[in-house]
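Colleagues,

For the teaching module next term, I've prepared a clean inverse folding example: a structure given as tokens, and then the sequence designed for it. I'd like students to try predicting residues themselves before seeing the answer, so please don't circulate the second half yet.
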């Protein structure tokens, strides 16, 4: 029984660490399509403060396409290690120093769902944003996000809390990789 408890504790500690670490993938990646030769830079969704929920965490990732240099994609994700529910992501907004920006869907607006088979579910959707949003976020003192789902509203802080979030920190990693590809 003691071994089972220790194993479960290690498993959930690892799961929580992966949520805050962006599922272990903390490098922006550049890929070039073999099909059409187009270049894309991506950064997997990483955690925000996740203070309001014990085992449910809003996450944010980024994508940029070389042939659309003035646009980017915000990859919005809800990671659920508690109820293991799926969330239809209907809307995404940012509050940047008091300016509220609502983003249109990138693509068809259909939320994708995934389950690791054991401990967590993810619900992910993509939203279109101007690339200069990154400058606004970098220059801002406060950035908050709001994800509206079929199962409630998730709000969290990206920038301006007492500790830098992974999503804020890895935005710079993403921007460095984009700069190499411009």
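(Answer key — instructors only)
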């Amino acid at each position: 029984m003691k071994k089972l408890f220790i194993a479960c504790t290690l498993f959930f500690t690892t799961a929580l660490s992966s949520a805050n670490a962006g599922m272990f993938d903390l490098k922006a990646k550049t890929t070039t399509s073999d099909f059409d030769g187009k270049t894309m830079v991506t950064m997997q969704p990483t955690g925000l403060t996740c203070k309001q929920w014990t085992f449910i965490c809003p996450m944010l990732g980024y994508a940029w396409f070389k042939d659309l240099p003035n646009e980017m994609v915000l990859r919005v994700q809800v990671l659920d290690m508690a109820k293991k529910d799926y969330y239809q992501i209907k809307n995404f907004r940012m509050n940047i120093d008091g300016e509220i920006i609502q983003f249109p869907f990138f693509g068809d607006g259909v939320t994708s769902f995934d389950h690791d088979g054991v401990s967590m579910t993810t619900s992910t959707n993509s939203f279109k944003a101007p690339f200069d949003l990154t400058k606004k976020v970098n220059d801002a003192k406060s950035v908050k996000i709001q994800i509206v789902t079929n199962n409630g509203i998730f709000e969290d802080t990206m920038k301006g809390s007492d500790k830098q979030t992974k999503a804020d920190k890895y935005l710079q990693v993403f921007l460095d990789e984009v700069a190499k590809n411009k």
